[in-house]
Amino acid sequence: MFTRSIGINNFSGTLPPELGQLVNLEELYVNSCGLGGEIPSTFVNLQRMTTFWDSDAAFTGNIPDFIGNWTALTSL
């Protein structure tokens, strides 16, 4: 399992599109971290994602269509 947690900190700005290159990423926690904006289109590559935890995040826009292709996703 490959997990990244960038939650509960004082970051600002948007999610780095480079995270979409972590094709083996299964869990990403971005809760309470001060990041916002849209979810990067590069996240289309995260086909193994099981958990995308974004509570208290300031994301804008619609949920991207590609999240429907994250067939292993169990928690959003």
The structural domain count equals 1
Number of helices: 0
Helix/strand/pairing category: mainly beta
Give the topology string: H per helix, E per strand. Answer: EEEEEE
For the report, how would you describe the main beta sheet? 3 strands, parallel
Shape field: globular
Give the termini distance in whole angstroms. 17 Å
Percent in strands: 15-25%
For the largest sheet, list the strands in their spatial order. 1-3-5
Unreliable runs: none
- Give the tally of β-strands: 6
Question: What is the typical, i.e. mean, pLDDT?
Answer: 87
Q: Please give the share of residues in helix.
A: under 10%
Q: What is the rounded Rg?
A: 11 Å
Main location: membrane
Subcellular location: Membrane
Pfam families: LRR_1 (PF00560)
Membrane topology: Single-pass type I membrane protein
How would you characterize the overall build of this protein?
This protein has 76 residues and is mainly beta. The protein has one domain (3-69). The protein is built from no helices and six strands. The chain has strands at residues 3-5, 13-14, 27-29, 35-37, 51-53, 58-59. The strands form two sheets. It has a three-stranded parallel beta sheet with strand order 1-3-5, with no helix packed on it. Strands 2-4-6 form a three-stranded parallel beta sheet, with no helix packed on it. The mean pLDDT is 87.
